[in-house]
Amino acid sequence: AAQKKLMAAQAQLSSSSAAGAAEPVVESRPTATQLTRELLRSKGIAGLYKGLGATLLRDVPFSIVYFPLFANLNKLGQKDPNVKAPFYVSFLSGCVAGSTAAVAVNPCDVIKTRLQSLQRGVNEDTYSGILDCTKKIWQKEGPTAFLKGAYCRALVIAPLFGIAQVVYFIGIAEFLLDMLPKHRG
């Protein structure tokens, strides 16, 4: 939706500079259901999985960096190996590990985001896959393009994973699972 809005604004700017002032374009925001229906109609079931390979390329290395880093940082806060680290250590360990992993895999996130774009602007490239996307970004924008958004991503991911670790530390998931009815085998 944001891309459509940006493209409409670009089209409006180019038409207003060529033909004087134009009326503003009003876009309604499509719902997730509308987007899903449109994807199914235009691209079939495969359209729902566009960019899956790039998503896995980002998420698997993220987990490979995040979980061992969190475990080691959290272990530093343990006074005794048999006692959990204090919750604030789990929070800070989750924040540091999450932001570090987010920055480490940011190049993969840039590629994933470009591949999953539904609409392209007039001057934007189209990509045939991960390697084509990587090559075009490298050639046209340089290596620093792979770090676009890394700072913001780290700022979002840090508290998210810090809070997730505190929730795990407190045992909320175990409490909720214990409330489920038990199946007798």
UniProtKB/TrEMBL annotation:
Membrane topology listed for this record? Multi-pass membrane protein
| TM spans (from-to) | 154-177
Q: Which GO terms describe its biological process?
A: malate-aspartate shuttle
Cross-referenced Pfam families, in alphabetical order?
Mito_carr
Q: Which GO terms describe its cellular component?
A: mitochondrial inner membrane
Alphabetized GO MF terms: L-aspartate transmembrane transporter activity; L-glutamate transmembrane transporter activity
Where does it live in the cell?
Mitochondrion inner membrane
The record's annotation in PROSITE patterns points to: SOLCAR
Family of this protein: Belongs to the mitochondrial carrier (TC 2.A.29) family.
This one is known as GHC1 protein
Name the species this protein comes from: Ramphastos sulfuratus
Lineage, uppermost ranks: Eukaryota, Metazoa, Chordata, Craniata, Vertebrata
